[in-house]
Amino acid sequence: MVCALATVPIDVGAQAGARVRVEENFRREPNGVVLAVVSPGTELQVLGREGNWTEVVLAGWVWLQSLQESDDPGFELVVSESEGENLRSIPSGRILARLEEGALLSETERDPAWAHVARTGWIWTGSLEPGVSTTGQDPAPVETPPPTRPAARSPGGFTSVGTTAGPILTAPDGDTLALATAGSDVELLDREGNWVRVRVEGWMWRPLTQEGGGASDESPSALEPGDLATDPDAYVGRVVAWTVQFISLERAEAVRTDFFEGEPFLLARFAGADGPFVYIAVASERMSDVEGLVPLERISITGRIRTGASALTGVPIIDLIAIERSREDS
């Protein structure tokens, strides 16, 4: 099995631009509202970097009939088309991104039927590679075909990625976590509509995994929810071992953008009834471990930090690795 992780670093100080490696979300703020989905090969102007996120400028041409004047004093235009609209390199040119309905834009130029617009936003750094220009001109075409999503089959067993590479996302419509190379095998764990949850297994060179403080170390750290709140992106991927008080087993609504819709999670309090709330995401293969839990029961969990602060409530989200019930409660 081969899975090429999308962790190409960008030296913001030395690079004026960056090119998108795989189809990726362009967000209002790190892990925030999606403004557009950017196509592979699109070049962006780099402004800065924060944790695992890069601040960039996305610019191009949009069909005027899909825009309206904005009521927001900071932007001239807003995308009004209910299904979004294409952002192009030149009028009727190559598609750079698909803008979402409601995306606010700054206008820089206009011709009779098109507006040249720009927007500052954030993109996952691992999906970028150093670019060659930020002139807004159509960049050289990408020679490799754009990656496609792995083919979906029923959960259970293994399937092979098709003839082109397939991005593995943090969640349905989330950001790129890794890139599974063509022909590599993935284990199918669950399915939600056209999305499949997969597991890959392989080896990484350890010095690479130690960059940024050794975030992939499997030994539980001493981090607590309060530590995560100070810098939510800094500890993503770290393993923690916590004692929590179970409250209820929930299913995520669509508004909880850090989960996929319907994903099960435990609502719990860290260290007891007076502690801060914690969300513990539960994969389908671990549902049998949690279905017998009793409200207010204390449990010991080992999990991996998905985010230090969820977008909706600011509560940390942990992906469950293991659970142990106390003898007095079981």
Short description:
This protein is mainly beta and 330 residues long.
Account of the 3D structure:
By secondary structure, this protein is mainly beta. It is 5% helix and 42% strand. It has helices at 206-209, 211-214, 225-230, 287-290; strands at 3-4, 17-20, 24-27, 34-38, 43-50, 53-63, 67-69, 77-79, 85-88, 95-99, 104-110, 114-124, 128-130, 158-160, 166-169, 176-180, 185-192, 195-199, 239-251, 264-270, 277-281, 298-307, 317-325. An eight-stranded antiparallel beta sheet has the order 7-8-11-12-6-5-2-13, with no helix packed on it. The model is unreliable at 1-15, 133-154 and 208-217 (pLDDT under 50).
Please give the alpha-carbon distance between the first and last residues.
40 Å
Q: What characteristic shape results from the CA principal axes?
A: globular
Average pLDDT for all residues: 80
User: Main sheet, how many strands, which sense, barrel?
Assistant: 8 strands, antiparallel
Secondary-structure-based class equals mainly beta
Unreliable spans: 1-15, 133-154, 208-217
Proportion of residues in β-strands: 35-45%
Give helix and strand order, one letter per element, not per position.
EEEEEEEEEEEEEEEEEEHHHEEEHEE
